[in-house]
Design goal:
Layout lengths: L19 H14 L1 H27 L7 H46 L8
Helix pairs in contact: 1-3, 2-3
Length: 122
């Protein structure tokens, strides 16, 4: 099973004169230190996906045929409100993903730096 944190961030380290096995152990330890940030990324991604689904549901609701003008007006208002809530939720989730991803990279980079690895792109 693949480590989910590898898809989040892969640090660029100068591997000159570095034991690859030791580096992998140290990288795993650093990723474990960043586990709370990885959990935050997962929660924020879920929030973003939920918001997108809500917005899509609002869009689909706007295509429901209704018999009268009053019902059409009420449905359109409700669909617009659902789209707005979904869009705001997705946007908030996207911002949280960006922040948590940045925090994750910072924790991993700091940990590797403390272990005396030379980062190529800090």
């Amino acid at each position: 099973m693949e480590d989910p944190s590898t898809s989040v961030y892969e640090p660029l380290v100068d591997m000159h004169r570095v034991n690859p096995d030791r580096y992998q152990r140290d990288l795993t330890a650093c990723r474990q230190q960043a586990a709370p940030q990885l959990a935050a990324i997962k929660r924020a991604t879920q929030q973003q996906q939920t918001g997108t689904a809500i917005a899509v549901a609002g869009t689909l609701a706007s295509y429901i045929p209704v018999p009268g003008f009053r019902q059409a007006h009420v449905l359109a208002s409700a669909a617009n409100a659902v789209q707005s809530v979904g869009g705001a939720t997705a946007e908030s989730g996207a911002a949280a993903v960006e922040k948590a991803s940045s925090d994750y990279a910072l924790v991993v980079d700091s940990c590797l730096t403390h272990k005396r690895y030379k980062l190529l792109c800090p």
